[in-house]
What we know:
6 helices; globular; GMP Synthetase, Chain A, domain 3; three-stranded mixed β-sheet; alpha/beta
Amino acid sequence: MARIKYDINLIKYISLFESITQVKVKDCISNGRLTFIVHEGDLGKAVGKKGANAKMLENVIRKRIRMVEFSSEVTEFIKNLIYPINAREIAEKNGIVMITAGDVGSKGMLIGRDRQNLVELKSIVTRHFHVEDIKIL
């Protein structure tokens, strides 16, 4: 687990998110779009009725946002992170997570152009869990 540091802009985004949604943020990552990780069971409240809170946040911040529900199990957390992509199996063994993609299209979306999606997934997961590597099969 890496030590999490926030800059002043991320702190502002977290404060705005918490004031609009009335949900505590566990983590926030900025890389072109904002990814808010909320505690277990709070995702529905964070999104709001018919996505009202999510739409309001995108309009106020003027950035694409993504909300992910945290889970204490690494496999469930990765499943939440890669949603809506369906993985056939997610298994963790000796600090290495293996994701079995359903088809070639899903595998391509998981890896991304120049491995950007895979690198982003690994950086988010290693912030919260002791994971050495993530492999897509």
